[in-house]
Records
---
Amino acid sequence: MDEVRPVIEQFAERMFGGFARRDQRGKGELYLRGLMLDGKRKSMQPMAQRLEVDHQQLQQFVTTSTWEHVEVRRRLTGWAGEFIAPDALVIDDTGFPKDGKDSPGVARMYCGALGKTGNCQVGVSVHAVTDWASAAIDWRLFLPESWDDEKATDGGAAAEIRRRRVRSAIPDELRHREKWRLALDMLDEVIGEWGLPSRPVVADAGYGDATEFRLGLTERGLTYALAVSPTATAHPAEAAPVTPAWKGTGRPPQPRYPDPPQDLKSLAMAAGRSAGRYVLWRHGSRKTPGNPTASMRSRFLALRIRPANRNIPRDSDGSLPECWLLAEWPPGAPEPTDYWLSTLPADTKLRDLVRLAKIRWRIEHDYRELKDGLGLDHFEGRSWLGWHRHVTLAAVAQAICTQLRRTPKAPAQA
């Protein structure tokens, strides 16, 4: 810590330079050091013991002090745009297991950290990503319907929800919104308000299966490579709508596709294994005797298709928009195992499609580092504001680690 502390102080000055008071800037730097110090637990009391300070200093800074975590995220986004120069913006969410029911947004939901449904909070995040680095630049705490009194049909239940919201100091205007809507809100923030350059958006099927999310990205002029379920339906790209003959009575018929859409699995199977090509998208870190270079390699096929959904706007001739279907068909597998839809240009090379679709691996690294090393899920407070401040500070701490890894001589130069 003595060696890297000058770098932490310099980074903290950039992130917290907008704070009105010097003591707030000092407490912010202190909190970052607490997150980065050795120690399994990164809640306030254990951190304060390691820092040899009163834990109330940390608690007051996170829960009641007057500073804007949104401004810190804006500065972090500016750093990520310069230092990481992201190739993609990746959307994901992660669970925060909880024992009680008073933490904001806590409910029985599927929790990846538990591998099952359990009592947890869920945070949705946006990450600026390249193959070599990534940063969690924005966050939203997901509010289930059980935390929205406007969704309650029973007066007593609504009153209890309101009491819980007041205890957690949840702003009244914040209501239940689907995770994909939270993701769009954050993209509007980081690109539209904070000036991060537009980049392709990548996410798992929890987002890719939401037609509204895909349309929302297109409306914003953002391309994407989104995982989807094989049961999604589409027409082949060469399919064309046909207008039935009009008999002169009634409403004129609209153009429509003569054949029903097929699911993505059927389209891939019809193309056949031979339509695929082997692609190496990166080298991993786990070398084995059978794979000394730790190469990540598999067979992929890419088809031009037209996703079919009644919510998708059609052109004047009735045709649906065209995009890529990417499917991974590993050697020895009887059928493809993973599917993506992508609106990257039609002349995009297969290896570029695969690299973008697979870049989500960086998020697994982010969550692992944030949770195992930097205490992302160790916050024990029960306030909405405290949660958002804590995850913001954990993200700043991770950004410092990223900068130190990329510039190993920085501590000595400082």
---
Amino acid sequence: MAKRNYLIGGSSGTGKSSVSSELRKRGYKTIEGDDELAYRGDPETGKPTDAPGFQYHIWDVDKVREIVANKEDGAAFFCGGSRNLHKFIDVFDKVYVLDVDIETLRDRLDRRTADDWDVNDSVNTTEFVLRLHATKEALPEGITINTARPINEVVDAILEGIEI
């Protein structure tokens, strides 16, 4: 996909989709992981499952590696989260982790509709996401970007650290 590949991660409500949209507006290649790569499967084997729960939200490893292998663009941004990230984190040149204060996160989550959640409502309550946010469970290590500011400033902060 690109000569340089970047991961934009973060817990639910931290702004991954908004960052992806803004990057796309600015002419960058983006991959919405939750829309383009994700499915419900076992994080170790990749075998599809119908089981509910956050722990089964994974990305297609072969597809990620295939996209990265194509070097047509200068930079590409993969936006989203995956429970099998350990299977392909090595393909990224840099990882950014979006973060926000608890009050802003709670406000963003309160504005979500049922269609905004990846997994069933019994699993993805606001309290569940707030716990994940507090513990940083399932987040990769990377450069933390505060998203409690205008989206253009968030994206500017990310772009300051990339190479093309």
---
Amino acid sequence: MLIVGNGQAAATAVQTLRSHGFAGCIRVVGSEAHLAYERPPLSKTMLSDPDAGVSGLHIHPADFYQDAMIDLMLQKTVTRIDGERNMALLEDGQQLSYDYCLLATGGQARQLPDYPYGDPHIHYLRTADDALKLKHSLNASSRVVIIGGGFLGMELASTTQMLGANVDVIEAADSLLARNAPGLFSEWLAQRARRAGVTLHLGAKVLAAKLQKTGQADAPVTLSLDNGRRLEADHLIVAIGLVPNTEVALRSGLAVCAHTGGIKIDHHGRTSMPNVFAAGDCATRINAETGEFMRIESWQNANEQARVAVQAMLGQTPAAASFPWFWTDQFDCNIQMLGATTAGLQFVQRGEMDAGAAVPKFLLLGIKDRIPRYALAVNAGADLRALRPLLEKGIPIDPQAFGDVDLPVKQFAKKTTAAAI
């Protein structure tokens, strides 16, 4: 078994292979120098905890690979897959044979040409080394400008503001999380961010940017916005999304989705090349409900797709993937989501959406024809778990009963399920 990539999906794949009884050779080829590590903490505890290091983020301890007899090849790059010979070709000229190959190549931060990667005042956050560079650059008096008001951008805004930095966020859309969250929540998050001291520039774009040479008295970075504002920053963070790593797939002739940029896979992770599978941020599959190609960037999706692909590689019938779930921590709130927002949803609220509360707690349920399709919980993870079966089974609900805070969510879920039987 050859696994190309050494991120979350790869780490799940090797563990799944051994736990399902595979005793043969497993090779993992990864371009980074580090063992596989968790990426969600990079924008949070990795920056905020002075003692946090890469070793604390490892998904598996170092001795796991030795005990599980995993051939780990770090700082190596696969350039092409030869499907006719079942062979992977490496940048250094090595050739690795395989019976089955899993592409778990992940992605890289989307870059802007005007903001060069590697400049000491320009930051992108995708790798542990990116996080360490940013961490060592920040101090309590830093002026930070973040381009991008998505999940990563707002996590970085929350963390850097908590560290004492003066933070501005530039978002081209008119709202935060425009593609991933209902407008009602986007407005609430904007209010909470502003209350925390973050300055938001929504519906704004950068007209011009200038980088000063190190050592000059002026701010290292100055930006002119199309709303007439001029911002000065010690550090500029670009957080505008991810580009899937599909170079090896394209060179090898695998089908890649023109819309999402991901490697096309079926519901078991198979690509267009025999015996080659893909999973995680680099993979695109068809949404069973909409019939559209969909690429999901999340911790849970990487784990689920890797598990499904490995079971299929082993000739087993994989269990269905879990209902999509995502979480983020920002501005002293744990935010969790089930499903995805789609057009035509009616949102029902439970609890008070007080942006100024010390610990706000509320739920939003997106329904269509009384059937819940999407749920969002702020500091209410236990309640979200109770609602999960309703979404997974498509059980109709009573919107008025859901909004009744005097009825515990667990009881609401039980009554709703019983009424549907």
---
Amino acid sequence: MQIDHDPDEPKLDRGPGPWKAVLAVIVFAWIWYLYFQPFNWPSIALGLLTGAGVVAWAIDITGNKIPDSWRGKASRSGRP
């Protein structure tokens, strides 16, 4: 089975999106935390927020696709 594709379909313009603002908020949060707070539960939440932001950014810029360079030889050939 083959999917029909429009050869004249415009490519998606993947600009920076909201990621510059998200990065600015995360940087501000880290600076504030490191200046004012000792290690405690908010630090764990900040780490989780940072990780979630990086994951969301990576999914957005890659279109949720795994790069071919990350795939093993078995997955390129169609075998599990």
